Amino acid sequence: MTTEWNIGMMLGISGAYWRGCALQAGVRLKIFSALLGSSQKDALEVASALGSEVRATGLLLDALAAMHLLVKIDGLYKNSEFAGKHLIIGLPGYMGHIILHHHHILDGWAQLDTAVMTGEKVARRPYGAEIERESFLLGMLNLAMSIAPKLVSQFDLTGRKRLLDLGGGPGTYAIHFCLANPGLEAIILDRPTTEPFARQAVASFGLTERISFIGGDFNIDAISGGPYDVAWLSHILHSNSPEQCQECIDKTVAALAPGGMLLIHDFVLDDTKDGPEFAALFSLNMLVGTDGGRCYSRAEIFAMLHRAGLGHVSQRKCATPNDSSVIIGAKK
Fold first, then answer.
1. In terms of domains, do 200 and 323 share one?
2. Radius of gyration over alpha carbons of the chain, in Å?
3. What single-letter DSSP state applies at residue 270?
């Protein structure tokens, strides 16, 4: 479908960061949590709770009300129904972690022109390694929890006993593969700094006995713990160069048992690389933030799998909100 551009659309896209920054500021300042439940407060009360300046706080509250994230009645503010479900810290539907991650990478996007000129990632404002790690990992957990149950149900793992969740972060997919397959055990392999988040998530689902964790860097270390019947690589390739991707796939295939299944979940570009739009834009996100990462086309990933000796290679589009898909291969 061809997009018909017009002036209004162009200006809306060019200034879209205004709305994003207002939302991110609201989350960073914990405005929605300050309006917990049915409480209604004026700008002075909110500013007192936040320790912020009253006039500026009122401007942000009005903007958030204009965006229908807050409701303003007779000078008092309260959360909208949506904000009450998804923007209050501690609630099950909280999505603030991924919003904070978007805030942390905003500086990089503002320097996209520099990245294009140099071909290298750009420096951005540091928020602290622990803060950035938490927002990224818990943000990925928030997003994947809504996608994983539907996604894992599309794959028949009957008879398969051991699954490798490579770079699995908090283990969302390992959790849901095990929930959907009672005879399956899973191993999450990721950096040691990820382990506390993964163990907490696994324990919350009562799967500590079936899901374990191996600390390591799969870009450097051998993939241990095999052989595996199935390997799940979700959003791994786009952070790496083509050479790193091939090496990662080769090492994963070596850790598979004969007949083992490799599942690569990612934002996969069309072979012409000019769509889907999200994948093409996500390549720019990787340009400003990684050394050599980008999204890859169907043809490129198929070629990587074939070079690794896999057969029966196919693609399955998953109808996720961001047009991700899964490319499947089997070890001969």
1. yes
2. 22
3. P
Q: What is the pLDDT of residues 37-93, one digit of tens each?
A: 777 999 999 999 999 999 999 999 999 999 999 999 999 999 999 999 999 999 999
Same domain flag for 45 and 159: no
On whether the CB atoms of residues 194 and 170 are closer than 8 A, the answer is yes
Angle (CA) 76-52-127 rounded to 5° is 125
Tokens at 304, concatenated: 């990587």
Beta bridge partners of 327: 264, 315
The CATH number of the domain holding residue 12 is 1.10.10.10
Residues 175/205, Cβ–Cβ less than 8 Å: yes
Task: Give 271: exposed, middle or buried? Use CB within 10 Å, 0-12, 13-18, 19+.
Answer: exposed
DSSP code for 237: G
Structural domain that includes position 277:
147-331
**pTM summary value:** 0.93
Antiparallel, parallel or unpaired: β 256-266 and 325-331: antiparallel
CA distances from 54 to 58, 141, 256 (A): 6, 35, 60
Strands (E), 56-206: 70-73, 76-79, 162-166, 185-190
Please give the C-alpha separations between residue 53 and each of 28, 45, 60, in angstroms, as whole numbers: 15, 11, 11
Q: Does an H or E element contain 129, and which?
A: helix 129-152
Question: What does the block give as tokens for 9?
Answer: 């659309």
Place of tokens 């079936």: 210
Quote the tokens at residue 100.
């904070």
